[in-house]
TrEMBL record:
Gene encoding the protein: nuoN
Subunit architecture: NDH-1 is composed of 14 different subunits. Subunits NuoA, H, J, K, L, M, N constitute the membrane sector of the complex.
Protein name: NADH-quinone oxidoreductase subunit N
UniProt function note: NDH-1 shuttles electrons from NADH, via FMN and iron-sulfur (Fe-S) centers, to quinones in the respiratory chain. The immediate electron acceptor for the enzyme in this species is believed to be ubiquinone. Couples the redox reaction to proton translocation (for every two electrons transferred, four hydrogen ions are translocated across the cytoplasmic membrane), and thus conserves the redox energy in a proton gradient.
Entry's localization field: Cell membrane; Endomembrane system; Membrane
Species: Parasphingorhabdus cellanae
Family: Belongs to the complex I subunit 2 family.
NADH:quinone oxidoreductase/Mrp antiporter transmembrane domain location: 128-422
Ranges that cross the membrane: 6-30, 37-57, 77-97, 109-128, 165-187, 207-230, 275-294, 301-319, 325-346, 372-391, 403-427, 453-473
Keywords: Cell membrane, Membrane, NAD, Oxidoreductase, Quinone, Translocase, Transmembrane, Transmembrane helix, Transport, Ubiquinone
Length: 484
């Protein structure tokens, strides 16, 4: 094995690891006063890691990728593209966090360091081609996430969210680990390629249970039905910047990991996993739509929206084709813009005392008091609903088109029909904003950073987003091709 090449292939993780350890020392010696400096340096480190991920994705010299550390880690276009999305989401989450925590006095330099540790874990997840690397990356991300969820120590809801996430996350990790041990026992290796070559033909009961348990553990991480139960409570209880982070970066990492495990490790068992993915996709779409209708908390509503969108993403995976994976990656780009924009809008919901507001009723008549924020909310809601000509429609169209091309017309038809249910609660939010009598609760003026990010995300999911198709389409196709 060439250690020099291995170190080059893992440069994004090395940069973030060294940076996080140094910044941890800065936080320890500098105390609370160093929070702003640590945040800025964390963003710089993420930009540095992004530069190398972009180099691996676009440089023809790295077109075919390569394995590092005896086949435990793979640098390829798929992993590099997923990392760019993860780093982008982490940067946005760090940019909006200081001002949110400033009013409560809860912001500390440990926050950006935890984000970096979580991001390192996610980088390992999307590049893992071995069950051992997969589990290490997953746990590094999860352990950081548990602390982030309960970051405001004097807030009961935040502490409760962290505890629920920890308990249910431990259960999911146990299921995943047990499934991995069964797969290893019958395949004789933890390498994805060896597992794919060994588990061929009709599976016996043992390895079949192993595959199901692995998929169940991964379904928890992407908050897919029926392993979604933690999502609404954690999203509601965690601080809003943390919720924005959970709904974006870890979601991308978990979905990319699920795709890699299914295609690389269980690619020869299409008939086994395809039925599971189809069921989980449809269940997530329907439950995410129906359960959101009665929600009165905007963060819980967006939690069910996240579950709903995971269902649409899994339709692309159910196709099991290069086109399906490419459609998923394109959808993830649009999903990030819609989700981050929506949660930054939620951060702008504050009363005269600066206290965060989360109820749908507080949005009543927002169009008259904050017309710019109201317009952005409407753009994000309509885009999440997949209403043309907004860019969110194109993401749904791509995954449905991939399903039809793979001969799964009934799945596409049911998915399209179920998406109509989801449109109801998105339009309900717009109705409250534009047609209800003003509540006058949201009065705080936005900050330049938040306003600029909201405007940027709104433009990205507006019809102007279609101009990015010639740029994004070949990149997502190249990234998907790396798996096949």
């Amino acid at each position: 094995m060439d250690y020099r090449l291995s170190l080059i292939f893992t440069l994004p993780e090395i940069i973030l690891t060294v940076s996080s350890l140094i910044l941890l020392l800065v936080a320890a010696f500098g105390g609370v006063k160093s929070a702003r400096l640590v945040t800025i340096l964390s963003v710089v480190a993420l930009f540095g890691a992004s530069a190398y991920a972009l180099e691996f994705l676009t440089n023809p010299s790295f077109e075919f990728g390569g394995d590092a550390f005896y086949g435990l880690y793979r640098m390829d276009g798929f992993g590099s593209f997923a990392k760019l999305l993860i780093y982008f989401a982490a940067i946005i989450s760090l940019m909006v966090a200081p001002r949110f925590f400033k009013d409560s006095g809860a912001y500390r330099p440990e926050y950006p360091v935890l984000i970096l540790f979580a991001t390192i874990g996610m980088g390992l997840m999307v590049s893992a081609v071995d069950l051992m690397t997969l589990y290490i990356g997953l746990e590094l991300n999860s352990l950081s996430a548990y602390v982030l969820a309960s970051f405001i120590r004097n807030d009961v809801r935040s502490s409760e969210a962290g505890l629920k996430y920890f308990v249910l996350g431990a259960l999911a990790s146990g299921m995943l680990l047990f499934g991995m041990s069964l797969v290893y026992g019958f395949a004789g290796s933890t390498s994805f390629s060896v597992i794919s070559d060994t588990l061929t033909g009709d599976l016996s009961t043992g390895p079949l249970i192993g595959v199901v348990l692995v998929l169940a553990g991964l379904a928890f991480k992407i908050s897919a039905v029926p392993f979604h139960m933690w999502t609404p409570d954690v999203y509601e209880g965690a601080p809003t910047p943390v919720t924005a982070f959970f709904a974006s970066a870890p979601k991308v990492a978990a979905i990319a990991l699920t795709v890699r495990v299914i295609i690389d490790a269980f690619g020869s068992q299409t008939s086994t996993w395809q039925q599971i993915i189809v069921f989980v996709a449809l269940a997530s779409i329907v439950l995410g739509a129906v359960a959101a209708i009665g929600q009165q908390n905007i963060k819980r509503l967006l939690a069910y929206s996240s579950i709903n969108n995971v269902g649409f993403l899994l339709i692309g995976l159910a196709a099991g084709t290069e086109q399906g994976v490419s459609a998923m990656l394109f959808y993830l780009v649009i999903y990030l813009a819609m989700t981050l924009g929506s949660f930054i809008c939620v951060m702008e919901m504050r009363d005269a005392d600066g206290k965060p507001l989360e109820s749908l009723s507080s949005l009543a008549g927002l169009s008259q008091t904050r017309p710019g924020l109201a317009a952005a909310f409407a753009v994000f809601m309509f885009s999440l609903a997949g209403i043309p000509p907004l860019f969110g429609f194109w993401g749904k169209f791509l995954v449905f088109d991939a399903a039809v091309a793979a001969g799964m017309l009934p799945l596409a038809v049911i998915g399209i029909a179920a998406s109509v249910i989801g449109a109801f609660y998105y339009i309900k939010v717009v109705k409250i904003i534009y047609f209800d009598d003003p509540a006058g609760e949201i009065v705080r003026t936005g900050h330049k950073t938040e306003n600029s990010l909201i405007a940027l995300m709104a433009i990205a999911v507006s019809p102007l987003g279609y101009l990015a198709i010639p740029l994004l389409a070949p990149v997502t196709a190249t990234a998907a091709q790396a798996l096949f």
